[in-house]
Design a protein that fits this description.
The complex is a heterodimer of chains A (640) and B (102). Chain A is mainly α. Chain A has helices at residues 2-5, 8-29, 35-59, 88-111, 118-137, 141-159, 166-196, 202-210, 216-233, 242-245, 251-259, 262-272, 274-278, 281-304, 308-328, 332-360, 365-370, 377-391, 397-411, 416-440, 447-450, 452-464, 467-486, 491-503, 514-540, 554-561, 566-612, 620-639, and strands at 66-75, 78-86. Chain A contains 28 helices and 2 strands. Chain B is an all-alpha fold and 102 residues long. Chain B has one domain (4-96): Orthogonal Bundle (Helix Hairpins), CATH 1.10.287.3510. Chain B is 76% helix and 0% strand. Chain B contains 3 helices and no strands. The chains are: A mainly alpha (640), B mainly alpha (102). The interface between A and B is medium-sized, with 12 and 13 residues.
Chain lengths: 640, 102
């Protein structure tokens, strides 16, 4: 232990990943009544964490994977360790989590100013960051699972942050329950693997799978069970409806939840044990299909929504589906790269919409547009940058990662997937620019020009804010916008960096077919541009109908708007299966079997007692006689 | 006449009489007397065995003395209970003491 304490890498890891926890404890115990101090504590902790993460990334960028571990507990011949596993994937993810959490917390200083629950907010933010960072660097599946659950817990707290609002508390509950459904699968997978393999260390797991040290069927079953966890966490089909509802929390929370922490955990776990997954073609095929369905389904939902945050929420699901597709098709780098770029531009998009929502007190993009959303120059420009990245337009980061994914899909023998990917790209560009155009060119112009007082209040709002609050919100946004523009150009260094983490395992994975790459590059860009042009034609140009092609088919609109009736389906199945079936059976069991059983025993005892009470005649000598006869019988029995 | 069995038979007779008395007498005093008969039958047995079989003559006599002391104590307690019962019921008939009947 002694030499560990002198190791700066170890110190930075421990410091970076435990400080947010202490900040949470300090806020909850000591400084709840002082929001200013709470936010400073939390900010100090998370910026130190981010700095540690960056230091680790720089220090270890060309080093072999580092692992620290110590025995956690022993049960039978099973040794479970607790420790840190620092390879290129976890270092990259640690940096993303640290930096984005830090930016979101800076932003929250402005966004949450004056909120009565500000201290609580920062405490949960710290908890969230702590859980996610530890989730990322866990070297053991069990440890990963523990922090995975803590991430879910923190997101439950933050989604239901405005707990006095019914819809918010319901949304928090929904997120929690839907995640648990997936986690049951994850836990079963862990138990299954523990029984048949007996080791949950991530490096060992990947190594054993890659060197065919495990039976194929075992891998398929446990990979699919793990994938249930991914489905829950990363909002894949069919457990995708919790994520759009999760926007009930404060907007910075959505930014964090949708980019680096909560939903990223699922995809991260997938890529963490990617070599394990990749050995089983069946599991990979299923994940590919689930990712595709998710991507297309949620993209159609985003097309019809007028809620700014809802559009981004659906697009998150869609992009997560895309990452799962990439991973499922064997594109390890493409999936992780898209996770990275997506974390940046999705945080950017949410934080920008947060500024609009903060300013105009509405989520409806039409009202924001009419009240003069485009006058807020910085967020408008940044949001457009984010939307361009999301649509995959050169030279923004989304372009590169999306092309990488499409290249991987194109290399897959089944061409359906790449077609679905291109369709998804069109949808993505269409709905993101539908939002941008509806804010930029609102129907009937900006209402503020016609109505004087309205304009005053809209204009006045910006002056009303102390400049520093506006800038705490604007600066993180600009940093993220800058990252979005730059991240695309680090593709090749990043590819080399990430490849090292699985190269050693000799896993074969698809790296994009060179011959296809050129054609798919053009096709992908065309798809994105086509989507933007379509939305320009329908929402942007002068005299456009502003209803979109879906609006012409009310039935389809309704289908998309009601999320393909997934919520109704869940409600119905909940009502019939859980409430109608299981609950009723349990009530019956409680009333009839348990209560009835105990009552029956009581009645039996009482009845027998009444029947037998005649034996107690109260006559002393009869008792004596019986005793004597009994003793005599015993003696005879003993003698004979 | 100087056989062990003579004493044992007398003791058995005594014991049977005591048993009969305790089961048949309805008077509490009678039952107490019968208990004395039982104890004395046992005492007689002890003395007889001690006299004919035991190498150390003191053991049986000590136990017999113990039994006599025990009998005295038992009579003291038994009589006081009977007295208390008599004050309550003005009778020593066991048939009247049936308040604990189920």
């Amino acid at each position: 232990m002694g030499e560990f304490l002198k190791d700066p890498v170890f110190l930075a890891t421990v410091l970076g990943t435990t400080l947010p926890f202490f900040s949470m404890a300090a806020i909850l115990i000591l400084t709840r009544s002082n929001p200013g101090l709470s936010s400073k504590i939390s900010l100090a902790a998370i910026s130190t964490s981010a700095a540690c993460a960056l230091y680790l990334l720089v220090k270890l960028h060309s080093a072999p994977p580092v692992q620290f571990r110590t025995l956690w507990f022993t049960s039978g011949n099973l040794n479970v360790t607790f420790g840190y596993y620092l390879d290129s994937l976890s270092l990259l993810m640690l940096t993303i989590v640290g930096v984005i959490s830090c930016l979101v917390q800076v932003y929250s200083v402005g966004y949450m100013a004056g909120d009565p629950g500000c201290s609580r907010y920062y405490a949960f933010q710290s908890l969230f960051a702590w859980a996610m960072m530890n989730n990322v660097i866990a070297g053991n599946m069990l440890q990963l699972f523990v922090f995975w659950e803590l991430v879910g817990l923190a997101s439950y707290f933050l989604i239901g942050f405005y707990y006095e609002k019914w819809s918010a508390s319901q949304a928090g509950k929904k997120a929690f329950v839907m995640n648990r459904v997936g986690d049951v699968g994850f836990l079963l997978g862990l138990i299954f693997l523990l029984i048949y393999f007996g080791n949950l260390e991530i490096p060992e797991l990947n190594h054993a799978a890659a060197t065919h040290g495990m039976p194929r069927g075992l891998i398929t079953v446990s990979a699919l069970l793990f994938f249930c966890g991914v489905i829950g966490k990363s909002a894949q089909f069919p457990l995708l409806t919790w994520l759009p509802d999760a926007m009930e929390g404060p907007t910075p929370v959505s930014a964090l939840l949708h980019s680096a922490t909560m939903v990223a955990a699922g995809v991260y776990m997938f890529s963490r044990i990617f070599p394990f997954f990749s050995v089983s073609p069946d599991a990979m095929e299923i994940t590919l299909a689930v990712g595709t369905v998710t991507m297309l389904l949620s993209a159609t939902m985003a097309i019809v929504s007028y809620d700014v945050k809802a559009v981004w929420a659906y697009s998150t699901i869609s992009q997560l589906g895309m990452m799962v597709m990439a991973l499922g098709a064997g594109g390890y780098f493409a999936g992780v790269y898209h996770l990275t770029t997506h974390a940046g531009f999705k945080a950017l998009l949410f934080l920008c919409s947060g500024i609009f929502i903060h300013e105009f007190h509405t989520n409806d993009m039409r009202i924001i547009g009419r009240q003069g959303g485009r006058r807020l120059k910085i967020p408008m420009v940044c949001m457009t940058i984010g939307a361009l990245a999301l649509s995959g337009v050169f030279p923004f980061s989304g372009f590169f990662s999306k092309e990488a994914i499409l290249a991987v899909l194109a290399a897959h023998p089944n061409k359906t997937w790449v077609a679905a990917g291109l369709l998804g790209t069109v949808f993505t560009a269409y709905y993101s620019f539908r939002l941008i155009f509806l804010i930029l060119f609102p129907e009937g112009g900006i209402a503020g020009k016609a109505h004087g007082p309205h304009a005053d209040s809209a204009q006045g709002n910006e002056d009303e804010h102390p400049g520093y609050i506006f800038w705490t919100m604007a600066i993180p946004v600009m940093v993220l916008a800058g990252a979005t523009m730059v991240l695309g150009f680090v593709e090749n260094p990043l590819r080399r960096f990430l490849d090292r983490s699985i190269q050693t395992l000799a896993v074969q994975y698809v790296a994009g077919h060179e011959g296809m790459a050129g054609r798919i590059l053009i096709l992908g860009s065309c798809a994105g541009l086509f989507g933007i042009a379509l939305s320009w034609f329908e929402f942007g140009r002068k005299g456009a109908g502003r209803i979109g092609f879906v609006g012409r088919f009310p039935a389809v609109w309704k289908l998309f708007d009601r999320r393909w009736f997934l919520d109704d389906f869940f409600r119905k199945s909940l009502d019939t299966v859980v409430y109608g079936g299981l609950s009723r059976l349990s009530v019956k069991n409680d009333n009839r079997v348990i209560d009835g059983g105990i009552d029956g025993i009581c009645h039996l005892t009482e009845g027998v007692g009444r029947r037998l009470s005649f034996l107690q005649s109260g006559m002393l000598q009869y008792n004596l006689l019986v005793m004597l006869l009994g003793a005599g019988a015993a003696i005879i029995l003993l003698l004979v | 006449m100087n056989h062990l069995s003579t004493y044992l038979i007398i003791s058995a007779l005594l014991f049977s009489l005591g048993l009969l008395g305790i089961l048949q007498r309805r008077s509490l005093i009678g039952m107490l007397i019968s208990v004395e008969l039982l104890l004395n039958a046992a005492n007689l047995n002890f003395m007889a065995f001690n006299c004919f079989l035991a190498p150390d003559p003191a053991t049986g006599q000590i136990i017999a003395l113990f039994v006599m002391g025990l009998a005295a104590a038992e009579v003291a307690i038994g009589l006081s209970i009977i007295l208390a019962l008599f004050r309550k019921m003005h009778s020593v008939n066991i048939e009247l003491a049936q308040h604990l009947r189920g």
